[in-house]
Amino acid sequence: MFKPKSPSIFLLIVLIANSLCAQTSFTIVSKNEKVGVFYDKSDAKVVEIAAKMLVDDISKITKKYIEINGDVHKYSILAGTVGQSSLIGRLVDDEKITITDIEGKWETYKIEVVNKPLPGIEKALVIVGSDRRATAYGLLEVSRMMDVSPWEWWADVTPEVKEEVSISVTPKTYGSPSVKYRGIFLNDEDWGLQRWAALNYEPETGDIGPKTYAKVFELLLRLRANTIWPAMHKSTKAFYFYPENKVVADNYAIVVGSSHAEPMLSNINAEWDHETMGEYRYDTNSRSIKKLFKKRAKETENYEGIYTVGMRGEHDSPMIVGEDDTESQVELLEQVITDQREILEKYSKKDEERPQVFVPYKEVLHYYQSGLNLPEDVMLMWTDDNYGYIRQLSNFREQKRSGGAGVYYHTSYWGRPHDYLWLNSTNPVLMWEEMSKAYEFQSKDLWILNCGDIKPHEYNIELFLDMAWDMTKFEKNTDVKQHKNNWATREFGEKTAKDITGVMLKYDELAFQRRPEFMAWSQVEPVTKAKETELTQFHYGDEVNQRIEAYQTLITAVDSINTKVPAYRKDAFYQLVYYPVVTAASMNHKWLYAYKNKFVSSQGRNSALYYGEKSFLAYNRIVSETNYYNNVLQGGKWNHIMNMSPRYLPVFSRPSIAVAFPKNTNDLGLALESYEMELNDKAINSYADVLPVFNAYTKNKYYVDVYLKDEGTLKWQAKPKENWIKISKTSGELNADQPEERLWVTIDWDKVPKGENKKEAPLGHDYQLIPPSFKVNSAIDFISGDKTYTVGVSVFNPKLEALKGYKGFVEDKGFVSIKAENYTRKKDGLEAKWETFEGIGYSGKVAVALPRTAKPQNWISDIVKNSPALEYDFYTFNFGEVDVNIQAIPTHAFFEGSGVKCAVSIDDAKPVIVDFQTFGRSEEWKQNVLKNATVKTAKQIVNKAGKHTLKIWMVDPGVMIDQVLIDLGGWKKSYAFPKETKL
Q: What residue stretch is flagged as signal peptide (predicted)?
């Protein structure tokens, strides 16, 4: 121990000058030199651990042995903790360094190059930490500078071998962190982490034990995290069952906490024995429960811990109380907290900080909202709704509480309406938006991410913890994209980083529209079988086929990138990119091809079996990739870590397949876009023989499927009757290898005749009733053998003076479709304005009202006067009452009493308030989180055909508008809004 001397004025001047200087190069290994690493053995155990990790990293890069606390080296790395290291004390006394900028701060460290710090050392890289974790972070910061990934072990990101290693160092202070306690929750570990540990990595324990936790804690140190909520399912023994676990945690300086269902660091699932301890209910058995609490408080009194206060029932269920009413529940919960705090006080040392946290999760939030009296020094830990949307945050009064606030957030979840335990499918920009919102409302004391089995959540774990470490680097939503690109560059090099970033952004976008685990349209609690998809197969270009093609593009892209990834990073690429992308694509293909199989079977297409086989191939791809992950990758290192069917739910099964009955005819089959029925040439008046109207202003294209009705071979021809009708292919042959083909019909707008412009009259509310003066009709003949099938083509091509040079939106087939970010104009409000977030939403961008601290405008007069507004110019050919459908991101109100509202109006109409808020676990909320969208409708009047303006006003700040669809009566059922109808 030492007491530092006061720094001289001269030293301060020198230090300030040094801080302004350019980067200094420091050689770690060269042909003739290599560093020695030194720390004081009296320093914390975690410093020793981090030093050994750094030395191991250097050795893996250079293949050279690096000494720790050995002989004096010309170039050395000196590390130590303020107040714990005599080595650092000597440097301070000799005025080689100063510690005034980090002393007494939380987890703050500095790294600088010092010339001749000690006898025999010419140049040293000095790492000083304000506390034990800070010193460890500093040592591992050097690993980062050498481009060693935090995922070096957990994702096999093998360091590049080099003969020489130098780093550039700018005198810099790191920390204090944005969030005080930062960590992960190992949860729902039954199908991955626990089996891997028990059967592969730690068979001597047969469980997640101290050896496994040491590797988890090593990862946390590399990611500058400091907190763990240990695994707690019944498949895993309680963390404190193994005495070594708490010792290992302390050695790695990891703070142990516990979830909302584990009060006082007690794992109720594993530790509560009904036979010997009685019923787990506080109103009748508090003595036994307090006995467990006391045991754990005494057991952990010498270790860092965060104690969850309050109580729930066993394994994520409400607590049992005698009187089933809110008042009694609140009263009992208050007594529980009082008793817990008395126990903690008894086992606390003088002036010791023993953080306590209250987690208002699920029904506990209702108790808190109902007036529960929570002591001021207890931390409020807010939660998301399990699907990424934070239910409530601290209001302005709660932000002043001495206990502070935190957030418990999910990227993995078991429960209704459906689990997502397999792949990482939480949109990173959504996570940024929610956590930055939490940070803005002063939830800065504890962030915990429920990341399931760790794998394959690697990227989102790192993003979450990087934000918690330094939120100033994530002030803009585009910082997430930059972070992802930096991550890809570090892991796989600049050559492939841009392509990998593009693939992952598209992966995130598709998963946001529908997670892979939700593709069967089934639900849990109770578990249901697969249901019909909401994706349309015959409107708007076929949503099913569009999603198939989008995922096939991703598979093609990762296959291409894989050929460019260096051999030593192939396994890392497989884990971090290839497996998630390919299996997500295959899960989608499995179900999408199954849905297509059933649809084409109902139309009597011979291709039903073809699509069924495609579905089976996709299922088999998931099987083979998962087998490779577990049994081949890294020689079986990860065997049992990846399970392709957690909880064995219907979505993970191989779908059943339909087969079309043979038609005993070799006739050509035709199916047209916008018709569920196939073309029936035997019907007197077929309802499926005319393509939707082509609109000169939206430049549509529509498909025609040609297909076999039976086995055999069939030749066909397509002959447009006018030269302005274009078709993607005019002849072909159908056979067993290609039982159907999709053709695209477009219009050559330079050749099609203009419709006569007698007057710009309203067209009637039925959008199909277009006046002949505006319409041009023709057809395409499809010929096969001696049969001809005629498909009608209608073109809407008027000469409207009002639309010359027009740049707004226009009606098409009875609707106007708008992406929220493509406003014509925007008007700033008194306190707020509309801005754009990228990387989220169905369109890839959303309009959001900011700042979040702006005053809500709930009165119509205030909305018109004070609120920011988005304006969209649009033109209609019909008029009457319309539905303005607003799609938003399904966020919740910031805090009790605030809202999630906007207002809409057309032209000069009075604004109508639209409310997106949901409550509890309602059916509406379930559908919203399954779809990551909420759609609300406002009635408005379009009083005439012609130009109009839609206005969207802010009512509550923070609302994120994704898309808008003005329905004049023509919108058909679809999962997403149709393509934007913009000139």
A: 1-22
